[in-house]
Design a protein that fits this description.
Blueprint: H1 2-6, E1 13-15, E2 26-32, H2 36-46, E3 53-58, H3 75-87, E4 91-95, E5 100-101, E6 121-122, H4 138-150, H5 152-156, E7 179-186, E8 189-196, E9 209-214, E10 220-225, E11 230-231, E12 234-240, E13 243-248, E14 251-256, E15 259-264, E16 269-274, E17 277-282, E18 290-294, E19 297-303, E20 310-313, E21 316-319, E22 321-324, E23 330-332, E24 338-343, E25 349-353, E26 364-368, E27 373-376, H6 378-382, E28 389-391, E29 406-415, E30 422-424, E31 431-436, E32 439-445, E33 455-456, E34 462-471, E35 493-497, E36 504-507, H7 513-516, E37 532-540, E38 546-550, E39 556-561, E40 564-569, E41 576-579, E42 587-596, H8 602-611, E43 613-621, E44 627-632, E45 642-643, E46 655-661, E47 670-673, E48 679-684, E49 687-693, E50 709-712, E51 723-729, E52 739-743
Parallel strand pairs: 1-2, 2-3, 3-4, 15-19
Antiparallel strand pairs: 5-6, 7-8, 8-11, 8-12, 9-10, 12-13, 13-16, 14-15, 16-17, 18-19, 20-21, 21-24, 22-23, 24-25, 26-52, 27-45, 27-46, 28-44, 29-34, 29-44, 30-33, 30-35, 31-32, 31-34, 35-43, 36-37, 37-42, 38-41, 38-43, 39-40, 39-42, 46-51, 47-50, 47-52, 48-49, 48-51
Helix pairs in contact: 2-3, 3-4
Length: about 750
């Protein structure tokens, strides 16, 4: 905050840290996805004089490579949760509202676990997908957001101090009524949010029902709840001029000039009163909404399906359209030749003909790719590439001029005798593809198909060449180790199991974590470790390191060596820790894990961490006396590509592929179907689209993701001419099944 102010910024700043160590002058925001009414009310209680902002209302969980998709709230549930924020007097920012691709090598990984990596596709379940087309939940979100925007003056004038006692629907099933109401009132009108219980995970909409409300004068109004889990009748709203809307029992959506639009369940009965003159309407069935004039205003009554084809512009309201573009021009529905416009002034209707209507058929055109060319990475795997340059030893990719992507390391070393050492690269936190004397050895590191345990090297007496393709999968987005090094940053070390004795739990004094290291992620001043510690006692008299390998760490741990704090670990890593021989006593040593936790089952947690921890002793650095070289990973020159039939890569070795294609998309989304490939990177017209991980190379048993398509953004395509598609596959899988798909039945929503 200080640097913002010193730089001349004087606008209010909003944080999104859930009241975590707020800074004076900031507006505390919230991050969440459920239980929003209670959350926003708590914000009001903590900061009654500040805006209540959900700075990150999550529409869908982040997708992680190799993990099954987490449950996504149904459109009805998401709409209800957004309505809870409005009912609490708050505002929300949808995160994300539109999906997309994280280009280049920026996808990174969330800080929850060391072995979790984010997909290049983000916001897969957002209201707008990565192609800009409406997703399943777009319509439900649009209905509520259009209402909130169109009647913003009502919400802006709400009495924020009025927070009546409510029926808590969070009570277990059977202990509370299934319907509750939140009444918001202010000088510009009132809104009554009527909530039914949030639908369960089976995604079935609630059964339609009617709810009777008693007004302040003792009269009653019936509110129809259709397929939605929330309704929002409004009261005492000025429509303009001398027209005042006394009440509307249907869901208001928009008001443009003399036109008022609302909707409800088909066949439901609704009541609307303007200037004290009530009218009863029946919500129509079918495709066409009802239009009528009442008290000088044109009322558009729609059902829950029709409302999604009604959109507002400055000159009026358009019926039967997909949307309205940034210029106020209606966007036709597939197969539609015209639409109806209800004029903003006077409410008259006229027909608007479309010059060109999109086809009603939702077809996908396939562009066959049959002129593939390839460049196998055999020269790099064999270590014969002229790109290799001598380096003094291990080094991070950034230090070697490759801050993103991959890098090739070559180590030439000698074995004094035939043996099978088991090796680790303790400092690496990504994936290392190992090739020993030109043969694929496997993948060391994290994620699907990688080996976390030590890898065996089959060595004969004499000289060997080890080539390592190191992949930078990105740094964590949170945690205390956000500056972790990338690449092969230390020697491959031969290890053997170390007998540290049976672990035990001891009680000791608490440790102030910030007194040891500051700052630390999610550690407050005064936070102390739990007094119960996981403890090993062992003797060590050699000049060799001890390596801790923790398969899974679900807690923040302070490692204490011989009664001195040594290293702080959190769930973002590192999962391997080297105790250098200089830090160890020549003799008896005590190693302890002290946890920062408030769990009641602390002993169970400590035993679980002990079971996940393997202790090794470093025997020797296998590559310590080797000759090191490094080569950047980069696309080959165009002249290097040869026909695939004469340039097949060696089995299991990486390869580059290239093919040209034409795509007359006419605005339709274009995707590349990567069927048959394993893991790698995709480029189009020299733009890096992102990474894919479909298979570990073990056939059907190695499937990582069933979704093998990737969007080619329109900005990277050449609509009139040849496009260049280039793929790097880490295992050299054949591109024979790869296709380009043009989704002609999908029309992106463009601002």
């Amino acid at each position: 905050m200080r640097y913002f102010r010193e730089a001349g910024f004087n606008v209010p700043t909003i944080n999104a840290n859930n009241l975590w160590q707020g800074v004076e002058g900031e507006i505390d925001g919230w991050v969440g996805s459920e239980d929003m009414l209670a959350t926003v009310r708590q914000l009001a209680a903590v900061h009654p004089d500040r805006p209540r902002i959900v700075a990150e209302m999550r529409t869908a969980p982040q997708r992680i490579i190799g993990q099954s998709a987490r449950s996504v709230p149904s459109p009805i549930v998401l709409q209800r949760r957004l309505a809870e924020i409005l009912a609490g007097g708050g505002q929300f920012i949808l995160s994300p509202f539109a999906g997309g691709l994280t280009p280049a090598f920026s996808a990174g990984r969330p800080g929850a676990r060391t072995d979790r990596f984010a997909e290049s596709l983000h916001g897969a379940d957002a209201p707008l997908n990565e192609a800009g087309a409406a997703a399943d939940n777009y319509a439900a979100v649009r209905r509520l957001c259009t209402f909130a925007s169109g009647f913003a003056r009502v919400f802006a004038a709400i009495d924020q101090d009025y927070r009546p006692v409510l029926l808590d629907q969070r009570a277990p099933d059977g202990t509370s009524d299934s319907t509750s109401i939140v009444d918001l009132r202010g000088s510009q009108g009132s809104v009554a949010f009527v909530f039914s219980q949030e639908p369960t995970e089976d995604r079935k909409p609630p059964k339609p029902r009617d709810v009777d409300l008693m007004l302040g004068d003792g009269s009653s109004l019936t509110i129809p709840l259709g397929r939605q889990a929330v309704a929002w009748p409004i009261f005492d709203v000025l429509l303009g001029g001398r027209a005042r809307l006394d009440y509307c029992t249907l869901n208001a959506v928009m008001h443009v000039g003399d036109v008022f639009v609302c909707y409800g369940p088909a066949n439901a009965s609704g009541a609307i009163s303007i200037n004290g003159a009530p009218i009863i309407v029946t919500v129509p069935r079918g495709k066409n909404p009802t239009t009528l004039v009442h008290e000088g205003h044109t009322l558009v009554i729609a059902n829950e399906d029709q409302i999604d084809r009604i959109h507002a512009a400055d000159d009026g309201v358009y019926l039967g359209v997909q949307g309205v573009d940034a210029n106020g021009v209606p966007v036709p529905l597939p197969g539609s030749k015209s639409c109806t416009r209800v004029n903003a002034e006077g409410g008259g209707t006229d027909k608007v003909a479309f010059q060109e209507a999109p086809s009603a058929s939702a077809s996908t055109a396939t562009v066959t790719l049959d002129d593939w060319k390839a460049v196998p990475a055999d020269a790099h795997v064999l270590g014969t590439s002229q790109r290799f340059a001598t380096i003094p030893g291990p080094g991070s990719l950034a230090e070697l001029g490759a801050p993103a992507g991959y890098g090739w390391y070559r180590i030439v070393f000698k074995a004094s005798a035939a043996r099978r050492p088991k090796v680790l690269a303790p400092g690496s936190r990504d994936r290392l593809h190992l090739y020993l004397d030109g043969e694929p050895l496997g993948v060391m590191g994290y994620g699907p198909g990688a080996e976390f345990e030590p890898v065996s090297l089959q060595l004969k007496k004499g000289e060997h060449q080890l080539v390592v393709l190191a992949e930078n999968l990105g740094r964590p987005d949170s945690g205390s180790e956000m500056d972790e090094p990338k690449g092969l940053v230390d020697h491959l070390t031969e290890v053997k199991p170390f007998r540290a004795g049976r672990h035990r739990i001891e009680t000791a004094s608490r440790v102030d974590l910030l007194g040891f290291k500051s700052p630390l992620w999610h550690v407050r001043p005064g936070d102390l470790t739990h007094p119960d510690r996981l403890t090993w006692s062992f003797a060590h008299r050699k000049k060799s390191p001890i390596i801790l390998s923790i398969a899974e760490l679900d807690a923040r741990v302070l490692v204490i060596l011989n009664d001195e704090p040594y290293r702080f670990l959190d769930i973002a890593g590192p999962q391997r820790l080297v105790l250098d021989h200089e830090a160890l006593n020549r003799g008896n040593n005590t190693l302890q894990f002290a946890l920062l936790t408030d769990r009641d089952d602390i002993h169970e947690q400590l035993h679980a961490i002990a079971s996940a921890t393997t202790i090794y002793e470093g025997v020797e650095e296998v590559t310590g006396k080797g000759k090191w070289a490094f080569a950047k990973w980069e696309p080959p020159a165009a002249s290097a590509f040869k026909p695939l039939s004469s340039a097949k890569p060696a089995s299991g070795c990486p390869a580059w592929y290239r093919v040209g294609f034409e795509a007359d998309a006419a605005g339709a989304p274009v995707r590349v179907d990567l069927a048959g490939l394993t893991k790698g990177q995709v480029f189009c017209n020299k733009h890096h689209l992102g990474r894919y991980f479909l298979n570990t190379g073990r056939g059907a048993s190695g499937i990582v993701s069933p979704d093998h398509t990737m969007l080619i953004p329109a900005s990277t395509l050449k609509p009139d001419g040849q496009n260049d598609l280039m793929i790097f596959d880490e295992r050299g899988a054949s591109p024979a099944k790869v296709r380009v798909l043009i989704e002609r039945g999908v029309r992106p929503i463009r601002a």
